[in-house]
Amino acid sequence: MNDDRPLILVVEDEPQIRRFVRAALEDEGRVVEAGSAAEALEAFTGPGPALAIIDLGLPDRDGVELIRELRTWTMLPLLVLSARSAEAEKVAALDAGADDYLTKPFGVQEMRARVRALLRRKKVGAGETVIEFGNIRIDRAHRTVTRDGAAIHLTPIEYRLLGVLLTNAGRVLTHRQLLKEVWGPGYAERGHYLRIYIGHLRQKLEADPARPRHLLTETGVGYRFHLQDSIS
Amino acid sequence: MSEAKPSRGIGDYFRAVLACVATTLLTLPLHGVVDAANIVMIFLLVVALVAVWLGSGPAILAAFGGVALFDFFFVEPRFSLAVADAQYLITFAVMLVVALVIGQLAARLREKALLASRREDEMRALYGMAKLLSGAVAAEQVAEIVRDFLGSRLEIEAVLYLPDRDDALVAIPARRGGDQHQNHVRAVYEQGQSMYLAAEESGYAPALALPLVSSVRTRGVLLIYSDHADRFCAAERRPLLDAVASLAAIAVERLHYGEVVQEVTLGMESERLRTALLSAVSHDLRTPLTVLVGLADALTLARPSLPPPALESAVAIRDQALRLSGLVHNLLDMARLHTGKIVLNREWQPLEEVVGSSLKAMAGALAGREVRVELAPDLPPLEFDAVLLERVFCNLLENAAKYAPQGEILITAQVAGEVVEVAVVDAGPGLPADGEESVFDLFERGRHSGAGGGLGLAICRAIVEVHGGRIRAERRAEGGTRMIFTLPLGTPPVLEEEAGE
């Protein structure tokens, strides 16, 4: 047993789900289980977990509220478990500070991939000046974007949007978060701006804009930027 | 009371005469003791009292009687109507005029007092009726209270006509032996004007139809009738009758709003129940399905690896559980769409985005399949609910993958007049002849006897239709099926030009 492995907190009231999540994450770190929000908060008394997986339907408290409370004092990555056709719930959890979500039912490999991505995100700083994905190279120091070496022109808003997405690569950003970040607080309700500019970025950066590999849509929720090729 | 006047009248006149005679008898001993002028005063007082107690007619009689008796008993020559001193003629004239004037004034005062007390009585009775009406919980009760009031106070019959759901007027209580008033009542209801129906016109007892006018509209008609038309035709009756009609109108309106509130509450309650049931069902099914998928998936990844037959079973369990989960979602989607109360989260967005997210979501089902996307380059943004439209694409793609096991799948979209036409085309065996429409019907299965395909297409149709579009299926001449749906173009919002370009 290597005690240096990261601590992963699983907050879920259904024991059978905790069981397979624990089994699936054995390779990624040590798993601590919590059946309620109260137990989850207790888990922070010792050495703090490196990541928490939180089911939004907790018996004692609203999962979104728990996330909001955790975010007042910790920046640990939070992965949310939620139902399909509960987009509003997911958006609320992400707006409250969650980093990513998984829709039930989910496969073990998908969950492992998300957990790994979030743990890695923690390690990699956002300070890199040159970022490469696919055939695109972005030099943030010189504010240049090239595709196979050829310069691509981005408008200031496109560049700002890309910057926010890159800084948060691997996380899901809600429409509201992106609008506020790129356009300002007054634009929180103008979802069509965001969608059209995302479309522009895809036209310029994706090999096949209808089947993006990096600038991914989380339907009804927001967007996620994938540095690695997502079709793997 | 006016109708009691004739019967009491003769008695009153007799009493007036009696008062004059009694006055004479009582004042006779005073003859010679007091001055005749004071005797006159006593007679005038009696006339005034008669006027107050008995009214104007007896007062006139008392005035004349008083003058005659004074002349007979107190003026020389006594016990004769002859007058010795001509001066007394002036006394008589003045006495008569004063007696008449006092009598008339006093009588008018009395009538006013009587009228006031009658009004007060009416007001009290109306107030009592209003109180009863405020407690009424059914139209029948309103009708009964109004009938009791008019029956006991005016001895007239009344029927309330109230509109039913189809706006047809229904008599409460129901009238036996046909209703001759129906047409007139209808006219009153529609015009909101009262109408007098003479006996010969209605072929029935004379009647008065009063509209029940509330603040918003005419709520019904109050029909009153009696063989004695004077009981409700007199002008002085109208204020009372109008008051009764307006009180009834208020009561009927209150009942109407009560019903509306109850219907809304019931609707909300059943809606709340339905939503609670849906979310309970979806939660209760989701949890075991998540466990099943997760445990089976964990088994397939277990180390050391399971022996091949067990591994195959684990994979099959996982796949079937995922399929079951998909079916449950489809059922819940259908239930939500069928309640008709789904809230669309419509936003202007490029179609390309939802095509991309659908292809990603269906990557498993489409594994190894060639999918070509041909969206017209000039396609404008459309206003739709991305989550729901993704369901449409996923269901159409799943269908294509399932029923056309080989060949390319093609997604196209282009502007066609006022709409955008989107098609998902496969190269499968195609629809059965005449199956083009029925394929979207609920629980209609697709071309093969595979399960559940029909539910997916029924969901597609429901979603496309709530977006104001149409969906249809076509057989391709070269084989395969073309599923086509439309979305209205609309006018996309204008984007502000980006500054600093």
Structure description:
- The complex is a heterodimer of chains A (232) and B (501).
- Chain A is of the alpha/beta class.
- Chain A is built from 8 helices and 12 strands.
- Helix content of chain A is 37%, strand content 22%.
- In chain A, the strands form 3 sheets. Chain A has a 5-stranded parallel β-sheet with strand order 2-1-3-4-5, with helices on both faces.
- The radius of gyration of chain A is 18 Å and the shape is globular.
- The mean pLDDT of chain A is 87.
- Chain B is an alpha+beta fold.
- Chain B is 56% helix and 14% strand.
- In chain B, the strands form 3 sheets. Chain B has a 5-stranded antiparallel β-sheet, sandwiched between helices. Chain B has a 5-stranded mixed β-sheet with strand order 7-9-10-12-11. In chain B, strands 6-8 form a two-stranded antiparallel ribbon.
- In chain B, a hairpin with a 5-residue loop joins strand 11 (471-475) and strand 12.
- Chain B is rod-shaped.
- Residues 1-7 and 444-452 of chain B have low confidence and may be disordered.
- Chains A and B meet through helix 1, helix 8 and strand 11 of A and helix 9, helix 10, strand 6, helix 11 and helix 12 of B.
What are the segments of chain B in which pLDDT stays under 50 over at least 5 consecutive residues? Answer: 1-7, 444-452
Mean pLDDT across all residues of chain B, rounded? 84
Strand content of chain B: 5-15%
**Quick one: biggest sheet of chain B?**
5 strands, antiparallel
User: By helix and strand content of chain A, what is the structural category?
Assistant: alpha/beta
| Biggest interface and residues each | A-B, 42 and 49 residues
Uncertain residue ranges of chain A? none
How many strands in all of chain A? 12
Percent of residues in helices of chain B comes to 55-70%
Sketch the major β-sheet of chain A: 5 strands, parallel
Instruction: Write the element-wise H/E pattern of chain B from the N-terminal end onward.
Output: HHHHHEEHEHEEHHHEHEEHEEHEE
Distance between the termini of chain B: 95 Å
Total helical segments of chain A: 8
